[in-house]
Each structure stands twice: as structure tokens, then as C-alpha cells.
Write a structure and sequence with these properties.
The protein contains 13 helices and three strands, in the order H-H-H-H-H-H-H-E-E-E-H-H-H-H-H-H. With about 325 residues, the protein is mainly alpha-helical. A three-stranded antiparallel sheet has the order 1-2-3, with no helix packed on it.
Length: about 325
Amino acid sequence: MRERPALLAPVFKSALADLLSGFLAEKRAAGYRYNAEARALSKIDDLLLREKATPDEIPRQCLDLWLSKRPGEHPTSHQKRVTVMRQFARYLVRNDIPTYIPHDGYAPAKSSGFVPRIFTFAEIRSFLNEVDRLEPFRVSRFPLRHLVMPELFRVLYACGLRLGEARKLRVEDVDLDEGILNIRNTKFGKHRLVPLAPGLAQRLRRYRERVGVRQNDAYFFAAPDGGPYDPKTLYHFFRNTLSKIGMVHGGRGYGPRIHDLRHSFSVHRLIQWYREGTDLTVKVPILATYLGHRDIASTQKYLHLVPELFPEVTKSLERSVGHVIPGGTTS
């Protein structure tokens, strides 16, 4: 059985070492891996040590040094640094340590303005039909590409997986007797089981037979070198396939993106449940678990997309679940 990558365990040395350790432990207890943030906390610890901070405060000069934007620093990196300090400051206040909490004016998060591209059912069919037309590659570099791509992209859409989750599936993670995918080491450090539709499970069984017997720790959708497919290779294939079916890609940051297959799965699932007369307030938490969301807030955003894309359900949907749609009604 493969082990999860180890969590970073920095050794803090400043006067606030115990509080830094407690803050990190609290975040991880809440389900965050917090590895990148742990590195930031180590640097905060170094700063506190250098500035001779006492156990009962963070000197304002330390805050000013940490919060100021550095020459050439990307706004996103600056915003992440500020966020870590803001959260730590709130932790200190909860523990009766008077601390200035940086306000949101410091490095405010910028909205990308990106709107997910939700594929229509017809577009998904057209895309998968085009992928199915792949023929065996005539050079030995990609001998199994025509077998891998149709099933990999079906799993991405039909199971709503993140690209990293699908790329890194191992043979041992794909239980085709029970029809279950074992998703490990996810974005939020979660572990979940994803059931397969019977038709997809049958396709994957045929795929497994065609690629031959492999070790349990081998990648299920292996690249020619035996490792997982590189994301850039998959995006290149994705864009080329979109072009073949007449869909224009807007370039980096404008999509469609592979991740939009996951968004499309989520919206399509809600629409199907709605048309079946299912209570969506019951189903949203189930969908959140299936997708591996940290909480249902991220999943609720898809409810906002449903009436925009399917106007005929707007009034009925707002009557039934408007109270949980961001920007929806409360009636």
C-alpha cells in the first residue's frame, strides 16, 4: 500500500514557537495539509527570532516587514503570505495574545473573472466520439495512446475527477469487481471512494484486458515511460480534439479547460436530479462528498450555474433551493 507524502514538520525556535505549532496543528486537524503554509510559518518564525519577539506579542515591525510587498513578488504570492499571517494573528487573538490582524486591504485576492465553460450534453458526446476515433500511433513512442485517452477522458467527465486524481490512479486504486475508484491524496488531503457507472466499469475492464497485466502500483493510465501522463501533454491533446469538433479555445486563462469537464459533470448531475424530481437540498451534500469538496459551499456554486444555463428550470429551482443558491432568493 502506498503511503501519503509526509507532512512538513518544521521546528520553530522563536518565543512564539508553541503558538506557531498549535496553529499548524489546528489547521491540520481541520483537514488541511498546510505544507506550503508550514514553510511560510518557518519564515515567520525566523523573522520573530531575528526581531527578538516576546512570547506575548508580534512586534508591529515584524508585521510590517512580513506584510510589505517584496520587489518582483507576484501579487498571488504576496496575497498568500498575507493570508497566512492574517490567520495566525486571528489564532493569537483567540488565545488571548493581543495582536494586530491585517485587514483585507493588504494584498486583496484578485478575481480572475474566469467563468467555467459548461459543455452541453451534445458537446460532451461529440468530444468523446472524436477521442474514440484515435488510431494506434504509427511510432513506438505512444503505443497505447489510442487506448488510454478515450477512457481517461471518460473518467474525468463521468466521475468528475480532478486531472491530478485521474492521472495518478494506480492499478490498485481501480476496483473493477466492485466498480469503485479509490481516490487518495486529494487536494484537501482527503480520501474518498467514487462509484463507477456500470457501462464505464465495463469499458475499463476491456481497457485493462487490452493493456495487459501490470503491477498493483503501476499507473492505470500509464504514459509510455510508465509514469503518469504529463498535464501539458493532456492539455495539448484536449485542445487539438476541441479544434477537430469545431470548438475554439480562447487561450491560457480563457478555456475551455480540462477542469471544465468536472464542472460540466457537476451541473449535468444537478440537472438530471432536478428532472427526476429529486430534492436537490438532499443531493448537494452527496455531490460535495463525491467531488471531494471540503464543504458544500463550493458545490452550491453549481446551483447558481444551473438556471443560467437552463432558463426553463429557474423559477422552480429557486422555489425549491433558492435559499442555498449564491445570489438566489430566500422564498
